[in-house]
Every structure is written in structure tokens, then in C-alpha cells.
Prior knowledge:
The complex is a heterotrimer.
Chain A: H1 28-62, H2 96-132, H3 134-149, H4 152-163, H5 167-194, H6 197-204, H7 209-246, H8 257-266, H9 273-300
Helix pairs in contact in A: 1-2, 1-9, 2-3, 2-5, 2-7, 3-5, 4-5, 5-7, 7-8, 7-9, 8-9
Chain B: H1 3-7, E1 11-23, E2 40-54, E3 59-64, H2 70-77, E4 85-90, E5 93-94, H3 100-106, E6 110-113, H4 117-120, H5 127-137, H6 143-156, H7 161-164, H8 174-185, E7 192-196, H9 204-221, E8 224-229, H10 232-238, E9 241-246, E10 249-255, H11 256-261, H12 266-274, H13 314-318, E11 324-327, E12 330-332
Parallel strand pairs in B: 3-8, 3-9, 6-7, 7-8
Antiparallel strand pairs in B: 1-2, 1-4, 4-5, 9-10, 10-12, 11-12
Helix pairs in contact in B: 5-6, 5-8, 6-8, 8-9
Chain C: E1 6-17, E2 20-32, E3 37-41, H1 48-56, E4 64-71, E5 74-75, H2 81-87, E6 92-95, H3 99-102, H4 109-120, H5 125-138, H6 144-147, H7 157-168, E7 175-179, H8 187-204, E8 207-212, H9 215-221, E9 224-229, E10 232-238, H10 239-242, H11 252-260, H12 300-304, E11 310-313, E12 316-318
Parallel strand pairs in C: 3-8, 3-9, 6-7, 7-8
Antiparallel strand pairs in C: 1-2, 1-4, 4-5, 9-10, 10-12, 11-12
Amino acid sequence: MAPPVPNVPLSVQLEVMPGSTLPSLLSGRRLRNQRLARALRLWVPAGVLIFILALCFLWPLVYKLPSPTVGNILYNNEPPFSPGHILGTNVQGVDEFSDVIYGGQTSFVIAASVTVIGIVIGCTLGVVAGYLGGWVDAIISRILDILIAFPALVLALVIAVGLGPSEIHLIWALSFFGIPALGRVTRGITLTLRSQPYMTAARLAGTPRWRIIVRHILPNIMPTIVTFSLLGVGIIIILEGALDFLGYGIQQPQPSWGGMIALGQQIMTAQPEYIIIPSIALLITVVALNMLGDALRERWGVV
Amino acid sequence: MSAQEQDKPLLSVRDMVQEFTVRYSGGTGLGRMPSTPGVKAGVVQAVSGVSFDIMPGETLGIVGETGSGKSTLARSVLQAPGPKSGSVIFRGAELTHLRGRKLLEARRHMQFVWQDPFSSLDPKWRVRSIIEEPLVAYHDGDRAARHKRVDELLELVGLAPERYAKRHPRELSGGQAQRVAIARAVALNPSLLICDEAVSSLDVLIQAQVLNLFERLRHELGLSYLFIAHDLALVKQVSDRVAVMYLGRFCETGPGESVYRKPLHPYTRALLDSIPSTEPGAARAAATLKGEPPSPINPPSGCRFRTRCPRATEVCAEQVPPPRELAPRHLVACHHPLSEPAPAATVSNEVTAPGTPVTPTQSARVISS
Amino acid sequence: MSDALLEVEDLRVAFAVGGRELRAVDGISYAVDPGRTLAIIGESGSGKTVGCRAIMGLLPVGTAIGGSARLRGTEMIGLSDAELRKHRGQDMAMIFQDPARSLNPTMRVGVQVTEAIQTHRKVSKKEAYAQAVELLRLVRIPAPERRFHEYPHQLSGGMRQRIMIAMALACRPKLLIADEATTALDVTTQAQIMELMLELQQELGMALILISHDLGLAASYADDVVVMYAGKIVEQAPAKRLFGTGGTVKMRYTRALLDAIPHLERPAHTALPVVSGRPPDPANLPPGCSFAPRCPSAADDCRVTRPALVEHAAGHRWACWHPCENGVSAS
Lengths: 303, 369, 331
């Protein structure tokens, strides 16, 4: 039977400034540590992500990397730190570092596309369903339910087998997961917002419905959407990786992290670095995304 | 307003009835807890035939406890949503028959102030936009004119525009935020302001500031108020006339002084006796009301107060007491008002009432009043 | 003074929030005698709740607490959770504002009461049941055997608060702290609950601390009153000395509070005497008297030196350089 945590309200600061006469109970060091920890939780993952993105997208523009698709079979299976190949080469002679970089590009592009589609279609459906309610809500909710019932992996498999695997098909298949996920979250939050008095106040002020949606609802759902999208990007990258690994996503020789793991699997015991390298890339990216999502959630007070 | 219009009520409500269905919100399904979510548990008649008028420039205070239906009444007058039956005539227009743009036009001169200022202001908007919103929606003047008007309104409620116009609600204190809500409410020069517990969440000293602001606006803008609260002294302070509400019906309506000096309904008497006063030892002597408030889903027949009333007799269970004018402009709905001697044949009111007197709480998702 | 039940001396509580230090309680001292009722009055942010939670040990980890609070001679501040648990329930108990949130919605109320009993006493289940029913009867719940098996949502607010009282009294504590216990209740229910608490106080010889913002409650039900502002005590006196005709309120803040509440006796539409501004930010307390920025009678010395809480008259302490004259409204 835990009693509620005391709520010490913060009044707005008065103009009269100087400090209190009693000595401080809390050491300055403790306060500084608290502040530092909070800032680190946000900026460390943000920094890591910015670094990874810069590495994947900007580095190849600056420094010419060996091709990730065509390798020199004479130089295959070079270990890491070989001259000219900082991470070595794989069984086909393709430079590993290059593979990681371009594979990363692919993953991010796909994840971003899926997220954008999810936001554009899913959030719109969610807001409309949440705000209008009634039969509109009923229909949209059923559509979202149907979409979410499809296991993304199986669906992608089916599409790949039926229509032939390609990046576009992969994006659409993963959208089957992205759209309803964002749609349902958006709908939930819109429902909460709709019962707030400021929505009634806006109506009372005479604001037309479309304007209420655009200027009242959208700004207030933004924090939730952004944090969920960040967390979602991590999930999509993993799903995409899994599909590549199974061979139904990005096809070889086009680089992808999942594909690299698949290739490395064959010589896993002898030369594990071919699995370890792409796995670490995946791990760091997804963990950074999650940590950033959580830090933003903490800062913005998203539930 | 012309002299003729002064005689006609600004707001006229007749026989308003408002209901909402109460559903089970589900549970663990253990024991006797109802477990079917969404299924109708019953219909609550939050407002059961309420009639009143508000004249121009007058303040009507509605006082009642939880479950009385006063907040539902306020929202129904506003048509958010409209009442199940009854009429609401505001400035000559019957609001219950209007929809859409016509309703917005007719309702333009009626505004609302909510209890919690922080949920009645969009947290993402700045103060200026918040106050400007009604002006924008009704196309009141161009950008420069609106800017000027917002500054005027901020000054009117005692907030310096250069310091407050750019802030977000989270940068305001409770009292300041409520002032912004009030500024927005008077932006369109309304005739009627409905205040639903508008100062109840404020600290005592801030509450006094905001009450004084209401007074000032009343004076300067000629506003009428429908002031709803559970604090009797507060309601008396701001109102010309007071209505006491119990379980969806008015028990007593009349001029403030009259109702408080000489209450004629036993419930009003009980309420007044329960207020702790700042005279040490004074209020303690009075008998407190026995029993629990009955369930709004299944209210008692006849007079709803009869289960807790020391003066109830058989007729109280059979007939709904009609409002009678027992003093100038002072209406009482009671078979045995306090102006008459106590009836001889009172019905014993120990907890013999069948079933559990229960108020619907969290299990049933009810918008509490 | 040594036979006082609770002696609080120079209690201080500070929180670290967002990298700033909030002084919630800035050095308060008071005492409660057995069988007496003390009302701690203050607005939000005054520190009234935090102070009592510090005594009960209910503040989150990481809060800095200084000073002392001795319950029957035993120091409460600084005890470990295990040691505090021995005292909670046996010697002191607390009830809170919102009984809906303090009761477990999935447990029957009777079981919650027996749980409170069995935490402190080794009794059989049957014995605990019997004691629980007795407790329900003690708090005047009709048909206690039936109510035992009900869930919180089936009870009204007043009933739930009675259950909370029953749980708090399970082991006959010597001190009961009621933290805004009736604020969320209707005024008629509030009167019932207050009456109940006073009767119980007499029957059990308990001391009662009422935490509230309602001066009327303090006047009607308390023996002694302590008024807090910005984490400090600004006035302390027996209720009879402060309220009613012949009451002498000295500190300007208390006077402002009394003047600002609507009184039934005043005619409608009178302007209330108003104090502008807001309570100070606990992270940024001004020097001198904390009320000085808002006080209509503030002078220069008020802004520079903090007035100490001194017993200027018998049993009546106040902290003000320029107190009110005869307790009549100054403005």
C-alpha cells in the first residue's frame, strides 16, 4: 500500500533572487551529478547515432571506398587490419568496412522510408479515427487491426516469393507493421486529447474542426510520435536484418547487415569476425536508438 | 441592452433532463465484481428536470456536492453535449434545436471557464495565440487589431502583456493560467460566463485574487454568471441568487441572503450546519447528516433527499415535491419545509434501504459532476 | 515538554529536482501532546505535507532530511526502513487525501484491514478477521460483516476514508496524522469523518495532527494551530487564541488567509482583501521574511532579516517584525 510520492510544486520564480540564509542540505556535487547524468543520457546516444549516420552517408563522399558489391577474389578472406582493408574482406573479396557502410545506408533508408510511410498513412488514420469517432473510427480501427494481424516476416516472405524480392517490396511489407503500430498509438493519444477541456474550449471559441486537428492535436501528439518512431526504427532495422538474413530481403551482392551475417554464418567457427562485425553494427545502432527514444521520452514527459 | 431587454431573461432553462449510460469498465472477474466491459450498467439521470432563469447582469450560483449533477448541468447548457430533453433559450434562441455554424453563432455570447486551467489551455500554444483563438475563429478584425485586443485583454485580467504574452501555460502559475483562461473567455464580449468550479483548484490567496477579478469584470463588462461550486461560502460571496442542487434536482432557489439566513429545505440546512466555521467550537454542535448519498443510478422515489432527511414522511416517497414560492423569489421543493413545524409521522431512516447505497465510482466510467 | 508525544526540532527537508535544490521544509519545530489535536495549516508548497512524511519516513530515496523528530523519546529521522516499519502502525499512522488511490482496487476492503493488522501482530486469520470487523464497527460502518467483503469501488468516498481510518487504527497508534484527509470529500461527509475522528481520539486517547489548507477546519476541530509558509512556521498558537471573536492573529500571512476566505456573514459581491503575488519558489527563497515580497505591511527590515519564531505572548508564537495590531483586519 505505497502512498503516493509527494508532489512539491514549483512556483514560477520571483524576481527577488538571492539565496537562503540556511546552509544547503544537499551537496553541490550531488546536484551537478544529477544534471550531468540527465544530459549524458540524451547526448551520448544522440552522438553515437549522428556518428553512425555520418559514417554511413557522408564518409563515402569524402573518401573513396572499395566497391561493396564487386570484390577481388584474389584478396578474399583477408583478416581485419590487413593493408587496404581495415576490417578485412569476406569470402568473395568484398571489403568488409565498405560492406558495413553501404549496408548501413540501406538499412537506414529502408527504416526511414517505412517510418515516413507509417507516419503519413498511420498517423493520419489514427488522428481521423480518434477525433471523429463513431463509424469512421470503427472502420479504421478494423483496418488497422487487420494490418497488424499480419506477421511482418511472413508477409515479407510471401511478397518476396510472389513478386520477387526487391527493396520496394521490402518497404511495403514492413509498412504492414509500421502503419498500424503508429496508427494505434496515434489513435490512443488522440482519444486522450479529445477529452481535454482545451479541445472543448477551442470548439467553443468557434475554431473549425480541421483547424483543431492541425493546430491543437498534431502539435500535442508530436512528442509521442517522435519517441515511438525512434523506438520503431530500431525494430524495423532488426526486422529488415532478419529478412535479409533469410534471403528474402535485400539480395546479394547488394550489401546489407543481415546478408553479411548470412554469409558469415558459413564460416562462423573459423572466422567469426564476419558475423561479429555486422552484429555489432546492428547492436550499437539499435541500442542507441532505444536510449535516445527513452531519453526523449523522459524529457518530454511522454507516457 | 435596451430597457425592454433588461426584463427578459438572458438565459432560460426549462425542464432540462440529461442522462448518460454507465458502463462496466471490466475487472478481474473475481467475486462479485462486474466483469463485462462495455455492457450497460444502468442509466444515470444526472439532471432530472431543472428550470431556472438568469437575468442580464445577474449571477446565479449553483451549489451541490459530488453527484448532484451541477457540472453536467453546466455542460448541458453549453450543449456539450446537449440535454436529452428540455429547453435552453439563450438571448432568444433555442439552443437545443441548433447545430453546426448556427449553434456557434447563437452561442457566441456564452463562454466557459473550467476548473483546471492547465487542461483548458493547450500546452503547446503561447498565451497570445490562446487568447486570440476566438477572435481568429470569428474573424474579428485584422492581425493588428487582434494584437491590440489581446494586449487589452491581458491588461484587463492583470497580466502585463510584455511579460506574459509569449509564455507557455507551463510557465504560468495556477492563478495566472486561470486568468489567461478568463481573458480568452471574455475576448468575444460574452453576456454569460459559466464558471465550473473555476477557483476550486487555486490556493486561498490566489482564489481571492481571481474572485475579485470576476467581480471587476462583472462591473466593467456587465457580465452575467452561472457560477458552480461546492463551497457554500464561496457561492454566496459571488452570487445574487443561489440554487441548491441534490441528485439532479434543485432543492431550493432564492436570493443568496434569503437562502443562507433562512434556509427552508432540510438539505440546505444540513449543508450549512456542516461547514466548519472559524468560530472555535461553534459548528460542532450541529447534527451531521446521516447515511450515505444514494446511487444516482437508482435514486429514491419521490423526493430524492428523503433517505437522509430527518423530516421525511410517507408522502415524500410517493410524490416528487414541486417547487413552491414560500418567500419572495424563494422557491423550495419540499413537502415539509423548515418554515413549517416538524411533521409528526416521520419515517425512520436507518439503513433499511434495500441494496447497497453505492455511488458509481471507478468501476463505472462516469463523468462525475 | 518531555512528556510530549511528538517533538519536532529544526526539521529540514530538501529535494534535488532537475539539478536544483528545493527547500521544502526549512527548519520547523513543534510538539504534540498526547490526546491533543494539532492543525498544520498552509497552502500548497508550504511544506506541511512533506514535513509529516519525513517523520513517517515516506519520502523518496535521495531526499535530504535534517533535524530531529522524536516520538515518545525515540528519534525517527534517520531510522532504516525496517526500524520505521515497527513504529508505523504501532505508534504513528497516516491517512491521505484520496482514499481511492490509497486503497488497492483489486482487494476486498476487509482483507486490506486484516493485512494491516497482521503486519504488526501475530494473530491467526480468524482472530484478524474478528479484529477487522471490530475496527469497521469502530469507524461506524454499518453492517461491517457484509462490508468486509466489498471492493473499494463499491463504496462511497466517505466509506473509503473510514476504511482508511480503520486500517490506520489497526494497532491503536498513539499518533494519527490526517493529511488533507477530508479535502476530497463533500462538506457533509467531511463533517461526519471529523466527528468520527474526534470521537475515536477520545476513546483511544490518540493525538491527532490535521494537515489542511482549510482554516475553518482548524478552528473547529483543533486545539493548537501551526501556520506554515514557504517551509517555515510563521505562527503557532492554541486555536482559541487565533480564531473567533477576540482572536488575535499576529502574523500578516495568517491575517491575509483569514481575510481571503469567503465568509458566510459577508454580503455578496464584496471585494475580498487581496494579497498579490505567489508563494516563493522553494529553490530560490528570498532573504529575510519569505512573505515580505507579498506583504502589504512589509518594511525594509522584513526584506533583510528573517524574523525568528518567538513566543511573544503565552503559548502564542509568531515570526513577524510588524505583526497585526489587534487581530482586526489591517486593511
